[in-house]
């Protein structure tokens, strides 16, 4: 359709069955909190319609370990945006959360894959939302979470993330010996190794992401 053909399209609206509208807004960074009023005024308030707004920002305090700034939850214009928006779909913080805890309207599913070790314990994945009703809409939200390395197709498959102990290469005398030492250590940790001649697709979830430090001084350059 005309919407998908516009590759450079930034923001827009999709209508589903004449009673559900999905709006999209691009990333505004630190200026995000200043556009809530404009968005509220641009999205028609109609109790017979269900409005979904997709934005890229995080709520302050929802990911304490993140260095990414977030919008304060008490921001007046954010609360006012709820007058026009029934479901605010966010993406920025990699941790799954909803807000507020009672009758939430803000939903952040979290990253499907880990991006660093700190996220290993994060709940993350996707939301399956069922919207019913006409004059009064009811949201039935089911959280589909990613378990580290889960490949069950009925859930949200994602790549396994491994963190192993430091590998000492100080006793090796060449780059080739160091590589061999590393591969030997990985095998001991049960890491599945593939033939270097085999082509590995980026979408192959059987290939884990591995974090390990190399330690020791080597006598070659």
TrEMBL record:
UniProt cross-references to Gene3D superfamilies, sorted A to Z: 3.60.21.10
Protein name as catalogued: Calcineurin-like phosphoesterase domain-containing protein
């Amino acid at each position: 359709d005309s919407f998908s053909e516009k590759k450079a399209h930034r923001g827009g609206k999709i209508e589903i069955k004449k009673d559900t509208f999905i709006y999209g807004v691009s990333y505004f960074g630190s200026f995000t909190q200043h556009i809530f009023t404009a968005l509220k005024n641009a999205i028609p308030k109609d109790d017979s319609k269900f409005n979904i707004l997709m934005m890229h920002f995080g709520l302050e305090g929802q990911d304490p370990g993140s260095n990414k700034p977030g919008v304060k939850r008490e921001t007046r214009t954010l609360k006012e945006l709820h007058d026009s928006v029934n479901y605010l779909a966010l993406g920025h913080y990699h941790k799954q959360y909803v807000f507020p805890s009672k009758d939430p309207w803000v939903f952040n599913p979290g990253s499907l894959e880990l991006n660093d070790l700190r996220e290993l314990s994060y709940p993350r994945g996707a939301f399956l939302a069922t919207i019913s009703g006409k004059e009064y809409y009811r949201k039935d939200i089911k959280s589909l979470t990613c378990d580290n390395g889960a490949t069950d197709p009925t859930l949200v498959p994602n790549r396994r993330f491994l963190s192993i102990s430091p590998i000492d290469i100080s006793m090796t005398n060449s780059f080739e010996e160091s590589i061999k030492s590393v591969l030997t250590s990985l095998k001991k940790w049960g890491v599945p190794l593939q033939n270097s001649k085999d082509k590995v697709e980026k979408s192959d979830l059987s290939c884990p992401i591995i974090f390990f430090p190399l330690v020791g001084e080597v006598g070659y350059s």
